[in-house]
């Protein structure tokens, strides 16, 4: 018998991974949580049937969502992670000794518990003394704060389901208010290739651009995400991701990374023409 | 088959839905249609079938023997109406396919004839005044009162109804809103007692009160309070399709056969089975799960209120405004928010929510906005609404806005609505209409409550209010001249 995990990247395109066995399949109050084991990608987590992370390629996503903003502002002290229940983003952030406080807000405690048990490699820093876990709606959490964070990372699911509120104008506005005067907002920004995703990507970009004076997009190659080409949004009040890149300061931290490096930092902001066009057309 | 798991608990008749079941049988029987509608179960209108779904069009049918006939119900519609009557604690119920407007008109026309008068709050929906135009009834308006801080019109105080009854002993009925658009309820039980002692019928407009019959801790329903008839917008908070409503009644003062005759005067003879089956299905859901559904709705509304009140500036009001007079009770499922504290008119916040945040709420007036919370809402959507209100305050907030200090504008009824409506008219510029008798309505919509009704004197106060509402961006409508430059007045 062969067991395959299949995700429909579009109604007519499928992506499949041969599965050794299914480890978890439970329903939380919010979503269906599944963990599988595979030959090629090791263990992987899906929420409502959509790929969230695999043991083998998660480093790309987590390094890119954290080190890019941290290299632009290596002196960031207070960070907020919205979503990110697998702990990978917190793991990368916790490597910076300058970070004094991390709030992580995930709506679904069950995801965090599953990841603690089955993904020790990503969830390993959730018990760091600087990390504070909050299980509630990110939109609700962030609106209470003003000038409270140097960095907000939105490590969310796609904007169809529990993550929808994290792609709205009111959410980006609430983040702006919660950020310090030189604060940075980074979010996972969907893929530019398939229509349904690129539509969400353009809408998110348009909304962020209306609120933040600096708004850029960078990219990474993630084998298990739809199209394999993934975008991140970089928005800030003051710091430009290229001209304010402090590679010397970042290099001096001597962090070992498998994907990110200072050259790639700049390169990741150099986008293909069709993506540039989409972003310009975002309205 | 869908029907299998539903309605198998024969102990409770409310578990069945006879009209829905008959339609499901019709569909399963694959009847060959050589009758109207001409789209023939959707096959002749592929674009429509694709848009609305072929399942839907397959039961968009005409009345026929196994599906009964709304104007003369003898089988499945009769059963469905009788289940609805018992679900609402009434003696009879009528399925209405012309909206609650048609139910309100049928109520008034069932108890009043030409030349009769009716005691009615001024903040009545225009459908009630339209009914007076149709059958020549004279209104006796009662001042419902206006809340001094919120600027919303309230319910009739029992003492005011009492004096209206005393001064108009010949009136045929007392008409009551239960609740108003904003969720304000009058002391319906007392009003019903007083009206009955004076030999008058009690008619309730419960367009916004379907849930009173099923939820816990909500204001008393018209049937429970002793009203004779009530018009209920099942589609507003009860879960049926838009335009489907119920008229429910007790038999003591009114004969249901006569009511059916009145309804048939104006009701279509091609009543939509989509609308009717939605009433049957919604009634079943309400009777079997209503308590749980509205418990959840109350919880969500309470949560939203506490979050909105936590922002500062906005005031999401609730039961604390009850005063035993013109606010005898409050419907806590309504999320009514006064916006003046953030320096914005309710209608401005309404527009910003829709244009900038993609959030459509029920309405905004001068000082307030109203969001309807229902069983179809999710926590996510409530969080979006609250977060957007934070943003609107941050980006657009100003110093507190003073509300135009408007008192109740007492209508000066010069001639009956019917007489004014049918009198020869002439057109005058709105700005110079003071002193004329209006032959048309002028109202803000929603909520559709008249500032002027046919037969009333255009006063300075009324004109100022209309101009202020226009300036604030309210949708003012009613007159034939949709630009509101001119007004039709009685010659």
3D architecture notes:
- The complex is a heterodimer of chains A (283) and B (491).
- In chain A, the strands form 2 sheets. Chain A has a 7-stranded mixed β-sheet, sandwiched between helices. Chain A has a 5-stranded antiparallel β-sheet with strand order 1-2-3-4-5.
- In chain A, 31% of the residues lie in helices and 31% in strands.
- Chain A has 2 domains: 4-54, Spermidine synthase, tetramerisation domain (Spermidine Synthase, Chain: A, domain 2); 58-280, Vaccinia Virus protein VP39 (Rossmann fold, 3-Layer(aba) Sandwich).
- The mean pLDDT of chain A is 94.
- Chain A has helices at residues 58-72, 88-93, 109-118, 120-123, 138-142, 169-178, 195-211, 247-252, 262-267, 273-280; strands at residues 4-10, 13-27, 32-38, 42-47, 50-54, 78-83, 101-105, 131-134, 149-155, 179-188, 214-221, 229-236.
- In chain A, a hairpin with a 4-residue loop joins β2 (13-27) and β3.
- Chain A starts with a strand and ends with a helix.
- Chain A has 283 residues and is of the alpha/beta class.
- By secondary structure, chain B is an alpha+beta fold.
- Chain B has 4 domains: 2-57, no CATH class; 68-286, Aspartate Aminotransferase, domain 2; 290-396, Aspartate Aminotransferase, domain 1 (Alpha-Beta Complex); 417-490, Orn/Lys/Arg decarboxylase, C-terminal domain (Ornithine Decarboxylase, Chain A, domain 4).
- Chain B has 16 helices and 18 strands.
- Chain B has helices at residues 18-28, 46-52, 54-57, 76-87, 99-111, 126-135, 158-167, 188-197, 222-225, 234-237, 256-266, 273-311, 346-357, 379-396, 417-422, 460-471; strands at residues 92-96, 117-121, 138-142, 173-177, 184-185, 201-206, 229-232, 245-249, 315-316, 329-330, 334-338, 363-364, 368-372, 425-429, 442-444, 449-452, 476-477, 486-490.
- A 7-stranded mixed β-sheet of chain B has the order 1-8-7-6-4-2-3, sandwiched between helices. In chain B, strands 9-11-13-12 form a 4-stranded antiparallel β-sheet. In chain B, strands 16-15-17 form a 3-stranded antiparallel β-sheet.
- In chain B, α1 (18-28) crosses α12, α4 packs parallel to α12 and α7 packs parallel to α8 (188-197).
- Chain B is globular and about 65 Å long.
- The model of chain B is unreliable at 1-7 (pLDDT under 50).
- Chain A binds chain B through residues 137, 139-140, 143, 162, 164-165, 168-171, 173-174, 177, and chain B through 307, 356-358, 379-380, 383-384, 386-388, 390-391, 394-395.
């Amino acid at each position: 018998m062969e067991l395959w995990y299949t995700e429909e990247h579009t109604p007519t395109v499928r992506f499949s991974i041969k599965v050794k066995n299914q480890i978890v399949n439970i329903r939380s109050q919010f979503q269906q949580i599944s963990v599988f084991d595979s030959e090629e990608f090791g263990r992987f987590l899906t929420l409502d049937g959509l790929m969230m992370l695999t043991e083998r390629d998660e480093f790309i996503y987590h390094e890119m969502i954290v080190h890019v903003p941290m290299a632009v502002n290596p002196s960031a002290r207070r960070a907020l992670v919205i979503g990110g229940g697998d702990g990978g983003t917190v793991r990368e952030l916790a490597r910076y000794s300058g970070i004094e406080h991390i709030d992580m807000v995930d709506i679904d405690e069950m995801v965090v518990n599953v990841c603690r048990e089955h993904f020790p490699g990503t969830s390993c820093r959730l018990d760091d003394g600087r990390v504070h876990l909050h299980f509630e709606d990110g939109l609700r959490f962030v609106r209470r704060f003003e000038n409270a964070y140097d960095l907000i990372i939105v490590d969310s699911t796609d904007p169809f389901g529990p993550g929808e509120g994290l792609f709205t104008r009111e959410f980006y506005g609430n983040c702006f208010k919660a950020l310090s005067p030189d604060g940075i907002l980074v979010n996972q920004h969907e893929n530019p290739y398939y229509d349904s995703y690129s539509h969400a990507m353009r809408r998110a970009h348009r909304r962020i651009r209306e609120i933040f004076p600096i708004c850029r997009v960078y990219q990474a190659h993630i084998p298990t995400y739809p199209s394999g080409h993934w975008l991140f949004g970089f928005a800030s009040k003051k710091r430009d991701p290229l001209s304010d890149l402090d590679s010397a300061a970042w290099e001096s931290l001597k962090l070992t990374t498998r994907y990110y490096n200072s050259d790639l930092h700049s390169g990741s902001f150099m986008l293909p023409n069709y993506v540039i066009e989409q972003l310009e057309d975002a309205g | 088959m869908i029907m299998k798991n539903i309605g198998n608990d024969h102990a409770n008749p409310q578990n069945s839905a006879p009209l829905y079941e008959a339609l499901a049988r019709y569909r399963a029987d694959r009847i060959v249609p050589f009758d109207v509608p001409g789209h023939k179960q959707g096959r002749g209108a592929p674009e429509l079938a694709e848009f609305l779904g072929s399942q839907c069009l397959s039961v968009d049918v005409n009345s026929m023997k196994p599906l009964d006939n709304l104007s003369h119900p003898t089988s499945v519609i009769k059963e469905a109406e009788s289940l609805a009557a018992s679900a609402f604690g009434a003696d009879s119920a009528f399925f209405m396919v012309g909206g609650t407007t048609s139910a309100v008109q049928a109520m008034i026309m069932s108890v009043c004839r030409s030349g009769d008068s009716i005691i009615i709050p001024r903040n009545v929906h225009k459908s009630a005044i339209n009914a007076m135009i149709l059958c020549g009834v004279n209104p006796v308006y009662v001042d419902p009162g206006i809340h001094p801080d919120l600027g919303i019109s309230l319910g009739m105080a029992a003492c005011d109804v009492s004096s209206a009854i005393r001064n108009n002993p010949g009136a045929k009925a007392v008409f009551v809103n239960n609740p108003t658009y904003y969720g304000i309820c009058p002391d319906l039980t007392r009003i019903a007692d007083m009206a009955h002692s004076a030999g008058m019928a009690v008619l309730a407009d419960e367009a916004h009160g379907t849930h009173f019959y099923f939820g816990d801790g909500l204001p008393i329903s018209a049937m429970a309070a002793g009203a004779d008839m009530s018009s209920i917008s099942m589609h507003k908070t009860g879960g049926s399709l838009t335009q489907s409503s119920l008229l429910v009644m007790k038999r003591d003062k009114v004969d249901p056969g006569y009511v059916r005759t009145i309804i048939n005067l104006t009701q279509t003879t091609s009543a939509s089975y989509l609308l009717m089956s939605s009433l049957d299905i919604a009634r079943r859901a309400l009777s079997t799960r209503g308590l749980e559904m509205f418990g959840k709705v109350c919880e969500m509304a309470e949560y939203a209120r506490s979050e909105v009140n936590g922002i500062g500036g906005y005031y999401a009001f609730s039961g604390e405004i009850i005063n035993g007079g013109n606010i005898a009770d409050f419907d806590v499922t309504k999320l009514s928010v006064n916006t003046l504290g953030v320096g914005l008119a309710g209608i401005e916040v309404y527009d910003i929510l829709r244009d900038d945040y993609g959030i459509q709420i029920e309405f905004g007036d001068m000082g307030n906005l109203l969001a309807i919370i229902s069983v179809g809402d999710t926590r996510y959507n409530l969080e979006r609404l609250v977060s957007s209100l934070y943003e609107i305050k941050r980006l657009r907030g100003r110093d507190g806005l003073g509300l135009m200090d408007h008192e109740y504008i007492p209508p000066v009824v010069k001639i009956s609505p019917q007489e004014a409506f049918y009198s020869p008219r002439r057109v005058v510029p709105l700005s110079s209409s003071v002193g004329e008798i209006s032959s048309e309505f002028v109202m803000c919509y929603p909520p559709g409550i008249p500032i002027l009704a046919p037969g009333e004197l255009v006063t300075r106060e009324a004109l100022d209010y209309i101009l202020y509402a226009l300036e604030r961006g309210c949708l003012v409508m009613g007159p034939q001249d949709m630009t509101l430059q001119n007004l039709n007045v009685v010659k």
